[in-house]
Specification:
heterodimer, A: Herpes Virus-1, B: 632 residues, three-stranded antiparallel β-sheet, 28 helices, zinc (chain A), RING-box_E3_Ubiquitin_Ligase (chain A), cullin family protein binding (chain A), ubl conjugation pathway (chain A), metal-binding (chain A)
Chain lengths: 106, 632
């Protein structure tokens, strides 16, 4: 018998390329869902990974960094929070320049 | 106190009657006439007495006697009254009285008769009039009688307004409403034909009958509608009619609120209520009994839920504390304590619908979602928003991927879901067929570029069109991806074992076996000596039936899951606690399994399974409590 596949309508799921059990260190929600303010997951609620390798929902870390007392430190390890560029960058790129702005001020 | 002669004599002293022969004769006859004509002698005496002017005192005596006699009588019917009147009138044929005297006599007689005959003189209008009774009352009674007759004849006729037909209806409103109250359940059921009858009820319902109306309705509902023999869709239909009907009778909705409570309570306990409502809302088909719901959904609702408190006005006085007035769909929704149950059901239906789409045509579904939001409130459907958004994103991704890498075949498409927002996504894994692998790889590479930082994972959902070239025939099938992957293994080969199939596709044996048996059912494969062989010669191939869609996750497969996985838990539970209701068992199971993975069973699934175990003699069911068989 010869088998020909003429059409393929696959259904797949997506997830952020992070260890599956990891959740946002701030809101404790899976990265594949949204931060507490967003409705739609994915590009609208992207992730940010710091040089310290800690990951957060972008909105969560931005909110954190906006607080005076955060002193631009990573809430997990208390090192200065710097977003990683390039290969490991997650989500939209304009986000990172926004995060950068905090680092310059600090 | 009965008035006797002495009382009257105190007020009206009787004149003295002169005593002579003529007067004696005359008074003797008059007071004892016994309806006999006077003798010639008496007639002469009467004439003489009349001439002497002494007759009137005798008449007064007569009247006095008549009074005491009539007052002592007890009339049983109007004939007796008439006879009595004739009797006392009799002497007047032989006496010539002045007009005023005659009138005074008649007034006295008639007033006595009226006094004694009040209760039945109305039977005879003419006679009643003759003794001076007010006959308006009588006329009304007659009209009322004929109206009541008419009303009786209108039993079961609800499509004409009785009030418009008969103007005098004011007289027998209560009668009409009583009839309608007795018929209320049937009137409600035949809405909208019965609108005229309902309008009549609204117009004439006496405040004292409001409670009666509600009680009669709920009584009949409990007796004739709310029992195991009724179909849920009929009950929902009746509920819809109840809402509409009672809003006609009482536009403020208080009666409705009271009347609909038993139906609401009952519908709440029926397990298929929500699926039926959701199905009716989502799939408006003419043959669906509940298609009115879909029409209802299309109607624009003016008042968004959140604005209600701005137009607050006090509830009517007989409203219950949690009185609500709603439109049909909102009212159906409010039967249940949370909207969550609906949203869950909707997400299942939406998921099925969205995943069966070809080439991402989701606009129809999206429009339905907007309509639903208008009834359920904006906030409830976040999951569904994400689901629709996923389809839109998939469409964009698909377009971009094919544009960026033109070598990706147009025949390969992927829908990419946010897995946390879709209900019941299967977790089975498998490898796509070899022929698809390169394309999938290309697509995944593009996906990483289009959606940086994310990865894709295949599920067994979706569909594939496969073409099989056999010795003497070419067949085309639309199947699920695992089925397509399995049949692809038989490309130029035959005689494969289940183990081989499941290991080379990295597919669970259960899924592999199910998919293989699909091909056996289609007579493409046959199972012999533990191996699956291709049936190259398709002589006995059954006709038609080759356009199979994606096989939905069937109840049967779900319940085997409960059967194998959860039986030990249920058994342990019952060993410890002896007897439990299906709800308790469900919540225990939910607790035990929620940590490992989402417990994908509905209470109905669990109940079904429990009942299966009852038929398998593993459990006993007593008063809704499940027990282990032979457990003492």
């Amino acid at each position: 018998m010869l088998v020909d596949i003429l059409e393929w309508n696959g259904v797949a799921t997506w997830s952020w390329d992070v260890p599956s059990e990891e959740v946002c260190g701030i809101c404790r929600v899976s990265f594949d869902a949204t931060c507490s303010n967003c409705k739609i997951p994915g590009d609208q609620c992207p992730l940010v990974v710091g040089e310290c390798t800690h990951r957060f929902h972008m909105h969560c870390i931005v909110k954190w960094l906006e607080i005076e007392t955060s002193k631009n430190l990573c809430p997990m390890c208390r090192r200065s929070f710097k977003a990683v560029h390039g290969e490991k960058q997650l989500g939209g790129s304009q986000v990172l320049s926004y995060i950068e702005s905090f680092n310059f001020e600090g | 106190m009965l008035l006797n002669k002495s009382h009257f004599q105190k007020v009206f002293p009787l004149p003295e009657i002169p005593t002579d022969n003529d007067t004696d004769l005359a008074s003797n006859w008059l007071l004892n006439h016994e309806h006999k004509e006077p003798t010639t002698r008496v007639k002469t005496a009467l004439k003489n007495v009349l001439a002497s002017g002494a007759l009137w005192p005798i008449i007064l005596q007569y009247i006095e006697q008549m009074r005491s006699q009539i007052l002592a009588l007890d009339f049983e019917n109007v004939r007796q009254v008439e006879r009595t009147r004739r009797f006392f009138m009799f002497p007047l044929h032989f006496i010539t009285l002045e007009d005023y005297e005659a009138n005074q006599f008649l007034r006295a007689l008639d007033s006595l008769l009226r006094f004694k005959s009040g209760k039945f003189a109305l039977d005879d209008k003419f006679f009643s009039e003759s003794i001076g009774l007010d006959t308006t009352e009588y006329d009304n009674l007659q009209t009322e009688k004929s109206l009541v007759e008419q009303i009786k004849q209108h039993a079961g006729i609800w499509n004409v307004s009785f009030a418009e037909k008969y103007e005098e209806i004011d007289l027998s409103q209560k009668e009409l409403v009583s009839l309608r109250i007795n018929e209320i359940l049937d009137i409600v059921k035949s809405y909208p034909e019965s609108i005229p009858a309902l309008n009549d009820i609204r117009q004439f319902l006496d405040p004292s009958q409001r409670l009666q109306l509600v009680n009669e309705f709920t009584k009949n509902c409990n007796r004739y509608l709310l029992h195991a023999g009724s179909n849920t869709d009929d009950i929902i239909l009746c509920y819809i009619s109840t809402i509409r009907s009672f809003l006609i009778v009482d536009p403020r909705g208080v009666l409705l609120d009271n009347a609909s409570r038993p139906i609401r309570r009952y519908l709440k306990d029926r397990s298929d209520t929500i699926p039926l409502i959701v199905d009716a809302l989502m799939n408006p088909r003419k043959e669906n009994k509940l298609s009115v719901l879909a029409d209802e959904l299309k109607m624009v609702t003016q008042i968004p839920v959140n604005d209600l408190h701005l137009r607050w006005y006090p509830d009517p006085i007989d409203a219950l504390p949690d009185f609500k007035k709603q439109d049909i769909i909102e009212s159906l929704i409010s039967i249940f304590d949370t909207k969550e149950v609906f949203v869950t059901e909707f997400s299942h239906v939406f998921a099925d619908e969205l995943l069966s789409l070809k080439s991402f045509q989701f606009y129809e579904t999206s429009r339905k979602l907007d309509l639903l939001k208008s009834k359920f409130g904006e906030g409830e459907f976040n999951n569904l928003d994400v689901m629709i958004r996923d389809i839109l994103d998939s469409k964009l991704t698909d377009h971009k991927a094919h544009t960026l890498d033109r070598s990706i075949s147009r025949d390969v498409q992927f829908t990419i879901l946010s897995y946390m927002y879709w209900p019941d996504l299967p977790e089975d894994e498998f490898q796509v067929p070899e022929s698809i692998k390169p394309t999938l790889k290309q697509f995944e590479d593009q996906f990483r570029i289009i959606r940086p930082g994310r990865k894709m994972k295949q599920t067994k959902l979706g569909s594939a069109t496969v073409q099989l070239q056999l010795d003497n025939k070419t067949l085309k099938f639309e199947v699920s991806p695992p089925e397509a992957a399995i049949i692809s293994l038989f490309h130029n080969s035959s005689g494969l074992s289940l183990d081989h199939v499941s290991s080379s596709l990295k597919m669970g044996t259960e899924l592999a076996e199910k998919s293989l048996s699909y091909w056996v059912d289609q007579s493409v494969l046959k199972f012999e000596d533990g191996l699956y062989h291709v049936l190259e010669n398709q002589k006995d191939y059954p006709p038609a039936n080759n356009h199979n869609k994606v096989i939905p996750e069937t109840k049967a497969s779900k319940s085997t899951e409960i059967n194998t996985n959860y039986w030990p838990f249920v058994k342990g539970m019952l060993e410890n606690l002896e007897a439990l209701s299906a709800e308790r068992i469900y919540s225990f199971l939910k607790l035990s399994f929620s940590t490992e993975k989402t417990f994908g069973q509905s209470p109905t699934d669990v109940r079904d399974q429990l009942n299966t175990w009852v038929t398998e003699d593993r459990l006993d069911l007593e008063d809704g409590q499940y027990k282990l068989k032979n457990f003492k």
